[in-house]
Amino acid sequence: MDQVDRGPAPLVLLIDEDPITRNLLQPVVRPFGLEIVQARASIAALELLQRVAERFRLAVVSLEMRGLSGAVLLETLRIFLPGLATVCLTAGSTVGGGPGCLAKPPRSGALRTRIAEVLAGEPMPASTPAVAPDVVARARSAFALSASLLDAARELARGMPGESAIDW
Q1: What's the pTM?
Q2: May I ask the CATH class of domain 11-128?
């Protein structure tokens, strides 16, 4: 029997500073045929996506990140990589990221269900506050000039409440 080479497995990008959460994800994504790539910082995640976005089917994003927050990262992905499925995680005592965020550490069953939903095309409910249209326009302009997701994210951070692009 001939084997068909389907190329490299699709990837899931896990963006989280917490090693415990990163370790929990491997057995959950294995049944989906995805390989995990981990990033401990949002900036590193954007740099990876900038280079090989087409390889990724899913991004699992923690809201609590130093520097560029998970909220800014999610908004950047929503605007500039809308075909990338996303799952949001939060360590907050209340799931303050919105109805689409799972509490950390996520229960395997809930995480597996949410991954199946987003891979099937179900959009994640908005997890970040609405960004003003002028902020989105500035981010789109920055991206048009530089083709850099990081530049676009900086513009989004400048216009999102409680965010700062100065620290990173």
Answers
A1: 0.86
A2: alpha beta
